[in-house]
Amino acid sequence: MRNTLLITLMLSLSLVAGAAKAATLKDSLKTLQTYAEKEEHTSSVKTQEVLKVIDQSVTAIIEGKEKASPEFMKALARAAVLTFDSDPSEAAGELLLPLQKKNKKALEEAIKSLPKKDADSLRESLKNAAREETQGNG
Fold first, then answer.
1. Counting Cβ atoms within 10 Å, is residue 109 exposed (0-12), middle (13-18) or buried (19+)?
2. If we measure between CA atoms, which residue out of 72, 38, 35, 78 comes closest to residue 57?
3. Which long-range contacts (CB under 8 A, 24 or more apart) does 44-48 make?
4. pTM for the full model?
5. DSSP 8-class letter at 94
6. Among 2-6, 86-90, 116-120, where is mean pLDDT lowest?
7. What are phi and psi of 99, to 5 degrees?
8. Quick check: 78 and 41 in contact, CB under 8 A?
9. Which of 7, 15, 36, 125 could tie 90 with a disulfide, CB 3.0–4.6 Å?
10. Helix (H) or strand (E) holding 81
């Protein structure tokens, strides 16, 4: 519950900060790749924008509005891990949970493309998000 409230607050802040809404997964891919190319990811505003793009992308994929390519899934996984540096709540793991439920195979392939440490970190975040969803936070 606490993480859900935190995610809601963070996403609200990103709207106030002027985060641009990605129109398509193609637009989202550009945003995610740009974020992944930067060496430092300490800007909480930029992280909030990326979390918003992750949320919008997952929603579009889950609702069947668009189909995600393997390249997009890899960019999504990479950006999610990078947000962990400036977002200790690891909200990206919670945002990716519905995608894992719907298309576990595609997400796992994307996770496998990450360096081992990053892949383990994302898997752990997803595992924690799933546990919190079923058992609550605490």
1. middle
2. 72
3. 44/86, 44/87, 45/14, 45/17, 47/83, 47/86, 47/87, 48/10, 48/11, 48/13, 48/14, 48/17, 48/19
4. 0.77
5. H
6. 2-6
7. -70, -40
8. no
9. 125
10. helix 70-83
Q: What is the predicted pLDDT for the residue at 115?
A: 96
Is the separation of the CB atoms in 79 and 36 below 8 Å?
yes
Contacts 24+ apart (CB under 8 A), 69-73: 69/25, 70/106, 70/109, 70/110, 71/29, 72/25, 72/28, 72/29, 72/32, 73/106, 73/107, 73/109, 73/110
How far is residue 33's CA from residue 87's CA, in Å, rounded to a whole number?
18
Element (H, E) at 88: none
Please count the CA atoms within 13 angstroms of the CA of 99 that sit on its side-chain side.
28
> How far apart (Å, rounded) are the C-alpha atoms in residues 60 and 12?
19
Structure confidence at residue 39 as a pLDDT band (50, 70, 90) = low
Please state, in angstroms and rounded to a whole number, the distance separating the CA atoms of residues 120 and 123: 5
The two tokens of residue 50 are 């990326």
> Within its chain, how far is the Cα of 131 from the centroid?
17
